Amino acid sequence: MSEAKLTQGVEFLAEQGLNLFAVLPCETLPDNVSQTLLAEDIPLKDNRSLVLIGHGGRRLWQALTAFGMQTADPVDHFSLVMTRRFVDEFLDSPPVLMLYPAGYTIPLQQLGALAGWHHPSPLGLGINENYGVWFAYRVAFLTTLSLPATPNPQTLSPCDTCRDKPCLSACPAQAVQGVGQFRVSACVDFRLQAQSVCQDRCLSRLACPVAPEHRYELAQLHYHYTHSLASIRRYDRQ
After folding, report:
1. Rounded CA gap, 32 and 179, in Å?
2. Res 1 pLDDT > 70
3. Which of 49, 79, 209, 220 is within CB 3.0–4.6 Å of 216 for a Cys-Cys bond?
């Protein structure tokens, strides 16, 4: 496999909306991340590269809509199908171990930080320099290939230059207090209320002024937040 072919593969993923791509060499992972993976019986020593794939903006939803909502988890299904095509067609089908979404518990936000994808935000999720809060992790896998490591760009957090911070005042649950101060229980309790305005969207996320051109379409917002609310309800009944 050549670097040119890898580049073509990354471009293929981007066309499908999977436009965030990073390679983290297994041997350079920090000890705390390695220990978390090893605790899941993930065979780091048998592999050389951890590949992290994500999406930013609206392109993924557009590609998924054209592909078709074919399963109960169409976003995961689409992401895995396209990743498998990437592995087979552009990496020449090396052995891979899918970590996410595949049943393993892995520290996605820590891996994303290592890749330079995000900074902490008041919303309890990362904020990306280019896509703001409109990005997500989609796939992570290990491979025996020694792929070129992705440089980690040193960027400033968009939150540092946000003077008004409208995300704080937009939250009706007062769950958004500041970076590192997100009140999960307040958010969950408010979303579980009957007729809550936060059932199928996050008003604070929508209020973020960073990269509004990448804000999800209403159908995508409805999909993600309806599914997350269903998960919260299942957990709440346990």
Report:
1. 22
2. no
3. 220
Residue 64 backbone phi and psi in degrees, to 5: -65, -40
113 class by beta-carbon count within 10 Å (0-12 exposed, 13-18 middle, 19+ buried) = middle
Give the pLDDT confidence score for residue 234 in this predicted structure: 86
What does the DSSP 8-state code read for residue 154?
Answer: -
Share of the chain above pLDDT 70, in %: 98
Tell me the backbone φ, ψ of residue 142, rounded to 5 degrees.
-105, 150
Please list the residues that pair with 141 across neighbouring strands. 51, 98
CA angle 141, 148, 132 (to 5 degrees): 65
Percent of the chain with pLDDT over 90: 90
Q: In this predicted model, what pLDDT tens digit does every residue of 117-126 receive, in sequence order?
A: 999 999 999 9
Which residue carries 């041997």 as its tokens? 27
In total, the chain counts a number of residues equal to: 238
Q: Which amino acid is at 28?
A: T
Instruction: Order across the sheet with 49-56: list the strands.
Output: 20-25, 49-56, 135-143, 96-100
Q: 64-84: per-residue pLDDT in tens?
A: 999 999 898 999 999 999 999
Contact 68, 31 (CB under 8 A): no
Neighbours of 10 (CB within 10 A): 19
Q: Which three-class secondary structure state does DSSP give residue 117?
A: coil
